[in-house]
Structure formats: structure tokens, C-alpha cells
Amino acid sequence: MTETATESLTAANLTENTGIIAAFAVPHPPLIVPAVGRGHESIAARTIASYNAVAEKIAALNPDTIVISSPHAEVGMRGFVLPEKAGLRGSFAQFRAPEVTFAEEVDTELRDELVRDSAPGFFIPLGSPELDHGTMVPLWFIRKYLSSFRLLVTGYAARVDFAAYYRAGKCIQKAAAKLGRRTVYVASGDLSHKLQEDGPYGFVPEGPEYDARIMDVLGRAAFGELFSFDSEFCDRAAECGHRSFVMMAGALDGYEAEPHVYSHEDRTGVGYGVVSFMRGQPDRSRTFA
Question: What is the 3-state secondary structure (H, E, C) of the chain?
């Protein structure tokens, strides 16, 4: 059976399932939104094509809720900040495209279940109603193909280790399953920002090394290896998505995950990777933290 046929069959088998049914690792350069790029978005044509394919797949899955983790959403210290209000709004005004706007409904039941069913302070419902660009770029593509869903956004926690991010993902999986939500997880994150000498952030050897390693790990859904990335190495590579990917891995804890790499691109000195993961059968060996 071909990879495409296998993916289609897997998607069909998920139609009656709930919880985290699929997950996606995506980048968030505002440049790839045409109103922002103003013609320059074509520099990342492969990433745009991959994003459209992912957004179409998400629409075909028809989720009740989409959870997005973004490194540019609000940061907590030892807890993960969730939206306080029932609505979220945003625009690309800071990127010279104020006409591109968003008005999103929060899945308040999922938010409240996360707060109720986790340790005090692990999830913090005090977030701003303003959307960040790490959330809006995925939303822009998804909204092209899917109009009806609720949203939950979480940012990073500054003073916790990778294991805490994985536990946060597990909590999201558990809460979505308990509420009977068909839920898609979107891990927003760019890869290294230091891939080219003439790029905006310069070059370090750890940059291309990080991109090669993370694309290999995600391409095999080898989520346990996400913990082998030293935090100092990640800092030197100037990545911004690793913790988002770890949280995504936690959201698929205990299940087979069928990966598909759409693309990896470095046209601006920043790495953009697009990978999907279809949830498969339960697998007790796939618990990593």
C-alpha cells in the first residue's frame, strides 16, 4: 500500500475517534501570508504548498477543537498560560497588513478541564485575548479550508524542563478525550534562525545541525529523542519550536504516530519544517516522559 493510501486509510479510521486525532509541526513566518509578503512570499513556495496541504488535511479531519502551542504566545514562569476570555482576536497590523484579522472562539470547556485536572498553577487561565503571530500564521492557512472549530492556545513556561512540556501535552490529550472532543494539535515553531551568514541572525554550525537532527527525529516520529537535544545546543542554534514539538509529542503519548514529512526549507536563514502525525493504535511503549 502506498504512503498516500495508508494516510487516507488512517484518516478514515479516525472519523469516529475523539481526543487528539492528529498533530502537525508547522512554522510561522508572517512573510508567507500574501498580504504581508506582497509578492515576496514566493521565496518560500515549498513551505506554502506544504501548509496548504496540511490545512486541507485538517479540514478533512473536521475537528471540534484545534489546540495551538506557540513560542510567541504568553509565557508563564512554571505554568502554561491559557486564554482567560471566551474570545480571541488579532491581526497582522504589526506586519503592515491590518486588513487580515481574526476573531476566534475559545474552547472554554477544554481550558477549564485542563485547569481542573492538573496540578495547581500548571495551567493558568490568565492569558490576553490578543493572538500572536505564531498562532495567526497557522490559523490563516487553516481558515482557508475550515470555518467551524473552537481554539485553545498555549504558550511556553520559562522555568520548566522538556519533561514538563511533555506532561502538558499529555494533559491536553487526556482532557480532550474526557470531553469527547475531536481535537487536532498544531505545534507552531520555526527551526534554527542561524542558517546563513547573510541571514537576519547570522550563522553558527549548530544551526544546520539542529535542522538536520530535528527533521530526522520528526520524520521518524522518534519522540523520545526530542529529550536528547541539550538546551544549550538549542539556544546556540536559536530555534524557537523545540518545546512546542515536545508538547505535541506529549499530546500523542501512548499511541502510534504515523509521520509524513512535507518539506524542509531554508530560504531566509531560518528553517521551516512541515510534518504531520496521524494518530494510530494505542502503544504502551510510546511513552517518553
Answer: CCHHHHHHHHHHHCCCCCEEEEEEEECCCHHHCHHHHCCHHHHHHHHHHHHHHHHHHHHHHCCCEEEEECCCCCCECCCEEEECCCEEEEEEHHHCEEEEEEEEEECHHHHHHHHHCCCCCCEEEEECCECCHHHHHHHHHHHCCCCCCEEEEECCECCCCHHHHHHHHHHHHHHHHHCCCEEEEEEECCCCCCECCCCCCCECCHHHHHHHHHHHHHHCCCHHHHHHCCHHHHHHHCCCCHHHHHHHHHHCCCEEEEEEEEEEEECCCCEEEEEEEEEEEECCCCCCC
